[in-house]
Amino acid sequence: MSSDTFTSRQFNQDPSSVKRAAKNGPVKITERGVVAFMMMNIDDYLEITGKTSTILDLVSAPNTQDIQLDVPKFKTSN
Predict the structure, then answer these.
(1) Polar residues bias: where (predicted)?
(2) Which residue in 7, 20, 27, 42 is deepest, having the highest Cβ count within 10 Å?
């Protein structure tokens, strides 16, 4: 996994190039020569944290208000 470094100024002037670089691995963003932030793609983040998206994360994501979710009801035996 490669790691690129950008200054805060570079990030502010061209955030798209930083996002493209983050597709290949974590990106360091520096302020006055010191690493202040890291950017990575969500798949890498979920892999290193061991977290996965929950149904709540997916339903509350932007632009999902018009998606209809049909959940079957489970029958319980008495």
Answers:
(1) 1-16
(2) 27
Whether 13 maps to a domain, the answer reads yes
Segments forming the whole domain that contains residue 53: 4-59
Q: What's the pLDDT at 46?
A: 80
Tell me the per-residue pLDDT of 39-75, one tens digit each, with 9 for 90 and over: 998 888 888 887 766 767 766 777 767 777 677 777 7
Helix (H, G, I), strand (E, B) or coil at 20: helix
Does an H or E element contain 10, and which?
helix 8-13
Whether residue 26 lies inside any domain: the answer is: yes
- Give residue 47's identity as a one-letter amino acid code: E
Which residues partner with 45 through β-bridges?
A: none
Number of Cβ within 10 Å of residue 27's Cβ equals: 23
Distance CA 1, CA 9 (A): 24
